[in-house]
Amino acid sequence: xxxxxxxxxxxxxxxxxxxxxxxxxxxxxxxxxxxxxxxxxxxxxxxxxxxxxxxxxxxxxxxxxxxxxxxxxxxxxxxxxxxxxxxxxxxxxxxxxxxxxxxxxxxxxxxxxxxxxxxxxxxxxxxxxxxxxxxxxxxxxxxxxxxxxxxxxxxxxxxxxxxxxxxxxxxxxxxxxxxxxxxxxxxxxxxxxxxxxxxxxxxxxxxxxxxxxxxxxxxxxxxxxxxxxxxxxxxxxxxxxxxxxxxxxxxxxxxxxxxxxxxxxxxxxxxxxxxxxxxxxxxxxxxxxxxxxxxxxxxxxxxxxxxxxxxxxxxxxxxxxxxxxxxxxxxxxxxxxxxxxxxxxxxxxxxxxxxxxxxxxxxxxxxxxxxxxxxxxxxxxxxxxxxxxxxxxxxxxxxxxxxxxxxxxxxxxxxxxxxxxxxxxxxxxxxxxxxxxxxxxxxxxxxxxxxxxxxxxxxxxxxxxxxxxxxxxxxxxxxxxxxxxxxxxxxxxxxxxxxxxxxxxxxxxxxxxxxxxxxxxxxxxxxxxxxxxxxxxxxxxxxxxxxxxxxxxxxxxxxxxxxxxxxxxxxxxxxx
Length: 576
What we know:
The protein is of the alpha+beta class.
């Protein structure tokens, strides 16, 4: 039975309805807490849904916000600033998804629970909230990351009382969330299991693997054996453990077992549901999380109703407990839920913070300025130049690096190329591409690129990244100049010793290289676990290293024009 209590939060009295039971259409009940003002009057509600546990979210009332790299930063306290939401005259309703926390039912796979779409559960949850005497019938949603993705899934179901959503830091294309360019990313493991700065899901014994449910034991055993033939997987102890004991890591097991894009991910892709959404949507994300920014822009373009795209400044990780962006959120909801004409819809739909110049650019669409894709060529002596190399391979001999597996070394080999210092500011906004002509002596490797803005004093900031597993080099029909797409639906082994062109997608970014600065691009097949960027991410936010020794030859001559293709805005040029 629900418990009603009053608490003091920094001098503010808050009424809490603890352990509400919210019925779903199949009889399963979800658990929820509701926070509101102490005067007995109905208010609009902001709903937050995730598997991270409503009790963890309550720490927003007692834990000062932490920024990375604080050891107290916990990536799962994401439901929003409870006290602020109550102060702004909303009811904050925080619920545990099916199969997690104190809720009933089973949770099978991601964005799916016991055969029930999580969007369907969100519909039932929102409509129940709207009918309560403490709610005035108007509902929005709140929360970052998983909570943000749940907002899109809910909106696609069109619950009548959901008036608008405000999504900060969501993740959408779930394949691109877990395999960057086909390279496995470990962050989803942390979110599920509670590693590297995340408490993880509020674990119950009712969370199950979709793969275990789908395949008979002997067939699944054969599939696991095949997956372990990948030397990258076989060389990583945690993955060997996951694959042999799937019931201990059910969601992570499903991700590891599905290394190619396809139906398994598509049914969990909120972007495919976006055309069903007709309520107002505000999408917000900070730079430095390019893989998620890519999906955010794709979602924005697919939405049909009133919409906003708000790209904020670096660094990539917001505070936990999550408190940022609330000013914008309340403007949005005050307009769409409370009917206050505050002018928010008179402002441009797209707002982009440009690093370097630290200016905000606004427009009606992304990218917010007219751009022209312009190449910067890899040249001898680690130079980047607007002019292509004229010498052939026999004179412009390739660069190269050898990477031993991390089982025998802790050194990640990185090769780099840099422009001369820019003589005047140079602005770039958009996606990009790297065309790398390379020869490797193995059937596969990773290509990991990181672009930096390097200041005269040597201080640098990451601008964007790109990832491509060599066997995923195939491009699809969406590809245009500076904007490559890979289907990731099959792996094509590389013929050792053959020179191939690899086109790596560089995630969206916005940066002005100031006078005296340089652009530096780094290439490796792994990544350092600690540097000026990675220290801002949770410890597990790295990619699966290559499990075999690989020699890479990088050709950049007249016959093999390795280059970056970058989105220079009108008036900017490589020469500065």
